[in-house]
């Protein structure tokens, strides 16, 4: 059975559900995302799996998940953090909610957390994530200038949001 994605209106109110295959370009959906740092201020980014429909093999936020029927933003970020990178029993701080009007129209509820863990110690789900790595702010700034295609298209906006 196909996953039922929550479809919302421009006020983020639920108006229905669609299978992921049945979605169209005008559908507005919900996403939760995690901006993960360590106590040194480094940022954990995840490389999207090669099979991903949106921005395959690009680096982006540590965790991103599309909400399905029966979920809210809070429950989704807990589920996705465990599924994608093996994070459990972490206190997530609710951040801003942003309306993204780009190639894919969605609301993103941001969360932040601080975790001191080596990148090799994260348990990644290969269907979702090709790898994770800690980046310094300086590394990200330089790559955004010199290699912007290294990242998902909106990473520069997210970086500024949490800088």
UniProtKB/TrEMBL annotation:
PROSITE patterns recorded: NUDIX (PS51462)
Stretches assigned to the Nudix hydrolase domain: 27-157
SUPFAM superfamilies: Nudix
InterPro entries according to UniProt: NUDIX_hydrolase-like_dom_sf, NUDIX_hydrolase_dom
Annotated source species: Candidatus Komeilibacteria bacterium CG11_big_fil_rev_8_21_14_0_20_36_20
Lineage, top ranks: Bacteria, Candidatus Komeiliibacteriota
Name used for this protein in its record: Nudix hydrolase domain-containing protein
Molecular-function annotations in GO: catalytic activity
Any one Pfam family match given in the protein's UniProt record, by short name: NUDIX
